[in-house]
Amino acid sequence: MKIIMKFGGTSVGSVPALEKVVGIVRKAFDEGHQVITVVSAMSGVTNKLIEAAHQAEAGDEAIARRTRREIEEKHSQTTLAFLGQSTVREAVMAEIQALLDEFELLCHGIHVLGELTPRALDVISGMGERMNVRQITAILNVNNLPALPVDATALIVTDNRHGAASPLLEETARQTRITLAPCFERGQIPVVTGFIAATQAGVPTTLGRGGSDYSATILGRAIKADEIWIWTDVNGVMTADPRVVPNARTIPQLSYAEVGELAYFGAKVLHPQAIRPARRAEIPVRILNTFEPEHPGTLINNRIDTNGHVVKAITVIKNLSLITVAGTGMIGIPGVAARIFSAVARIGSSVLMISQSSSEQSICFVVNTTESPAVQAVLSEEMARELERRDLDEISTQDDIVILAVVGAGMQGTPGVSARVFGALGHFGINVIAIAQGSSEFNISLVVIEGEADEAVRAIHEEFRLHA
Ligand code: ADP
Ligand code: ASP
Ligand code: MG
After folding, report:
1. Taking 60 as the threshold, does the pLDDT of residue 213 lie above it?
2. Which residues line ligand 1 (CB under 6 A)?
3. How many A from CA of 132 to the centre of ligand 1?
């Protein structure tokens, strides 16, 4: 089989984790599979790089040097553990140092200019992956595995939306086949950077935070992989985030559609876009635990299973704001919803959820908090006349809210699910601020305040006995 194996930050973030990775790759290789690995930066590195870039922009001259030392130390310790004092280690550390030199230089430029462009941020934030593929390749090599480092800038072609670029699938398929064919012929194991890509002109981009999952499925589609295995630090997709619900359990199988909903609504275990390439190419995806490799984890494929639990999982998206446009005269304003959402689209903001009261006296919708001031401003401008005439009473913003999504196939066909969700929340005195209108048949989504989100998840988890 052709198997893409993606290893996330914690799976490649320490010596014991990397030992597991070597074992996992060896097993698949020895079984005769063609393995392509996609790896993240060591855990914490991407955050550090991004933070340093922002601090440099804000005027901190010393941050780049400090960050460099921390990252260098992490790689130095790791390579020492696997490679000892050797020429191989020296060669790898030289490559990592060259990248860190580039990082310092970039931060210096940002500091001098006092400006961090999205394009520069993409170059900086992707450096952790570039360092790590070199390190991991050397580690696999000393373990007699024929690995080869590959920067995904030579494989994945995207548009130029820095920070959240989208792949151009045809170009990517072509590039990937050309670049990886010699590797496959020689029986080598490519170790590909997750997260990063490049435009057609070769300008570096990234696929958004957590984007290595997306890299794995984009590449899986490009090379027509038989399976995609996402190795992480939990036993597959669970009924809720185990950090919030300690007795959450693994969901053995999910459909692409269900996982799409879960990822979109905040289940961090998979990047929101990652399921799409796999779904289109009908490639099974497994979510597996690097630290417990024998656990079967979660299998994601076409099968929609409505037996057993109707509600399968609960997720939360945080850092959101609720924008409400309200007024008794609203009913008389022609095309009001269209005007509101066109204005929001004009400034490039995306709306995560919409809810309209049946009396048509208000429309509310959810956006990312980082975008809410701009949304409020553009709406005040668009609706200036209506506000002045008092057809609209106000446009208001409520910060610190979350969307809670209750996901499961066949839920809409089962009466009483909503009633049980609201009953459970009511029991704990949790107020539901809004519910989504016309959400997909796979989910019910509602808005609660951030401070009550964890309790709300636990209440619904309990109500549907998802731990059982
Ligand atoms: P990686 O670095 O391997 O990509 P992430 O931290 O991005 O790992 O994603 C894994 C984490 O996602 C888990 O540690 C867990 O806390 C979180 N998570 C959130 N919701 C879920 C869920 N429903 N099932 C499993 N994990 C979840
Ligand atoms: N290293 C990147 C991030 O932290 C990508 C990833 O881990 O998937 O966002
Ligand atoms: Mg992740």
Report:
1. yes
2. 8-11, 40, 210, 232-234, 237-238, 240-243, 267-269, 313
3. 21
Distance 214 CA to ligand 2 centre (A): 10
Let me know how many helices (H) and strands (E) the chain has, helices first.
15, 17
Output the CA torsion 46→265→155→71 (10° steps): 10
Residue 359: its pLDDT value, please? 65
Identify the residue whose C-alpha is closest to ligand 1 atom 4: 8
Give 55 Cα–ligand 1 centroid separation in angstroms.
Answer: 28
Specify the ligand 2 atom closest to the Cα of 271: 8
SS3 327: coil
229 alpha carbon, closest ligand = 1
- Find residue 320's DSSP bridge partners: 368, 401
Contact 215, 6 (CB under 8 A): yes
pLDDT, tens digit (0-9, with 9 covering 90-100), for 239-277: 999 999 999 999 999 999 999 999 998 889 999 999 999
* d(C-alpha 269, C-alpha 258), whole Å: 13
Asked if residue 415 has pLDDT above 90, the reply is no
Which are the contacts of 126, defined by CB distance < 8 A and separation ≥ 6? 193, 195, 196, 204, 206
41 CA from centroid of ligand 2 (Å): 7
Q: Which residues contact 274 (CB under 8 A, 6 or more apart)?
A: 213, 214, 216, 217, 263
Is residue 389 within 8 Å of 329, Cβ to Cβ?
A: yes
**Number of neighbours of residue 61 by Cβ within 10 angstroms:** 12
Per-chain mean pLDDT for the chain? 94
Lookup: tokens for 80? 């020492």
Written as six digits, the tokens of 372 are 């809410």
Q: Is the pLDDT of residue 198 over 60?
A: yes
Q: At what angle do helices 169-185 and 212-222 cross, to 10 degrees?
A: 80
For residue 231, which of 40, 25, 6 has the smallest C-alpha distance?
A: 6
Q: Check: CB of residue 228 under 8 Å from CB of residue 274.
A: no
pLDDT attached to residue 143: 97
**Residue 315: CB partners within 8 Å, gap ≥ 6?**
240, 241, 262, 265, 266, 267, 404, 405, 407
User: 3-state DSSP helix/strand/coil percent for the chain, to nearest 5?
Assistant: 45, 20, 35
Are 388 and 281 spatial neighbours (Cβ–Cβ below 8 Å)? no
Q: In this model, does residue 182 exceed pLDDT 80?
A: yes
8 Å CB contact between 331 and 362: no
